[in-house]
Amino acid sequence: MPVNTENMVKVFGRPESLTDARFTYCPGCHHGILTRIIAKAIDELGIAERTVTIAPVGCSVFAYLWYKCDAVQASHGRASAVATGLKRANKDLIVISYQGDGDFASIGTAESIHAANRGENITVIFVNNQIYGMTGGEMAPTTLVGQRTTTTPDGRDPAYFGYPIRFSELIATLDAPVYVTRQALYDTRRIMDAEKAIKKAISYQVEGKGYSLVEVLSTCPTNWHMSPLEANRHVAEVVTEAFPLGDLVDRGG
Amino acid sequence: MPSGRVLIDEERCKGCGLCIAACPQKVLAFSGKINRSGYNYVHMEHPEKCVGCAFCAMTCPDVAIEVYREKVAA
Ligand SMILES: Cc1ncc(C[n+]2csc(CCOP(=O)(O)OP(=O)(O)O)c2C)c(N)n1
Ligand code: SF4
Ligand code: SF4
Ligand code: SF4
Ligand SMILES: [Mg+2]
Q1: Is A31 in the pocket of ligand 2 (CB under 6 A)?
Q2: pLDDT digits (tens, 9 = 90+) for A185-217
Q3: What mean pLDDT do residues A151-173 have?
Q4: Are A217 and A183 in contact (CB under 8 A)?
Q5: What distance lies between CA A145 and its chain's CA centroid?
Q6: Ligand (nearest to CA of B47)
Q7: The predicted structure's pLDDT at residue A3
């Protein structure tokens, strides 16, 4: 039965700067929520025409398809370096680098830290789902102690594999970053908080204030072997214990 | 309470169920029907209970939900 919306006002729709392309993510994966939030911030700041998004390697490798903006697909881990080049070549661009935890906090460690330390005027969205999603669920540097992955079948043992890295806390020790925060998407309140944080981070770049890092605790229901709802609960109850939410640095205000 | 309606893009829906859990009014449910991608998509089981809060749409990872609210006379 068609739903009748005559004489009603639309209060929520697809952001203007999202294309019609369907996301390639698994059911319930937070990558999709985050994509909508970034598009919404681009809309609200009116910057679509001068924004360049950077797609990483990982499940979000197709991120160049989602926004009505220019985009570059970087090789694995190099997105913050590509962002640096774009921004330095043309300061009028708004550059948003979207990177998974394998990408940002493992193979791209050097590029990630040094872009932050140089205080590049870019916005990095760091998607921490504690796993290598795209390649089938191997351990990431962020994988929790005891977490089973295909490469830690008995659970991550810190004596052998080290502890989960709190990359945002590392970046927060540097002098240059203007904004470093950790957000989540497991319920509507966190989604609204994440919307505010992402808009703030991008607006700091628009205002020329410098480097921002928004880490987002994300789910991977497929490789965690959980339902989307169980995955949300896992973030709320377990993941946030290892990765506490909130602002670590805010020098932009 | 204002009255609301949601439009669900049945072909975009992946049947993840997150909107069903996010709805404070228990409006939404699986339709029991399968879309072209093979997913059991969501529909409004109790449309009369919708308040147009948009919690479902905010939560939807596939941006498959539009929300409408009744016009309130100023
Ligand atoms: C140079 C290079 N090394 C390894 C790979 C294989 N590879 C593809 S995606 C990926 C991990 C992606 O994990 P993450 O960045 O956490 O993204 P997610 O898929 O979890 O969102 C790896 C190791 C590659 N494509 N290129
Ligand atoms: S494998 Fe995991 S991170 Fe990748 S799309 Fe599926 S649920 Fe999302
Ligand atoms: S708009 Fe609010 S009340 Fe209506 S279906 Fe969505 S979550 Fe439920
Ligand atoms: S949240 Fe979106 S994709 Fe998931 S069941 Fe609801 S409408 Fe479908
Ligand atoms: Mg990952």
Answers
A1: yes
A2: 999 999 999 999 999 999 999 999 999 999 999
A3: 98
A4: yes
A5: 22
A6: 3
A7: 76
Mean pLDDT (whole number) for A102-126 = 98
Q: Is B13 in the pocket of ligand 4 (CB under 6 A)?
A: yes
CB-nearest partner of B71 from A3, A9, A27:
A9
Report whether residue A102 contacts ligand 2, using a CB cutoff of 6 Å: no
Report the mean per-residue pLDDT for chain A: 97
Over residues A209-228, the mean pLDDT reads 98
> 10 Å Cβ neighbour count for A250?
16
Does A4 sit within 8 Å of B5, measured CB to CB?
yes
Residue B74, pLDDT > 90, answer no
Closest Cα in chain A to B6:
A3
For residue A112, with 0-12 CB atoms within 10 Å meaning exposed, 13-18 middle and 19 or more buried, which class applies? buried
CA dihedral B30, B34, B38, B39 (to 10 degrees): -10
Does A10 contact chain B (CB < 8 Å)?
A: yes
Please state which CATH class domain B2-71 belongs to. alpha beta
Is there a contact between B24 and A12 (Cβ–Cβ < 8 Å)? no
| Mean pLDDT value of segment B15-40 | 98
Cβ of A30: how many Cβ atoms within 10 Å? 28
Using alpha carbons, list the distances in angstroms from residue B36 to A120, A225, B39: 45, 25, 7
Strand-strand pairing, A51-55 and A8-12: unpaired
Q: Ligand 2 test: best mutation among A22, A23, A25, most atoms within 8 Å of CB? A: A25
pLDDT for res A6 = 84
Q: Does the interface ipTM go beyond 0.85? A: yes
The pLDDT of residue A125 is above 70: yes
Query: If DSSP codes are grouped into helix, strand and coil, which group holds residue A140?
Result: coil
> Where do the structural domains in chain B lie, given as residue ranges?
2-71
All domains of chain A in start order, with CATH: 31-250 (3.40.50.970)
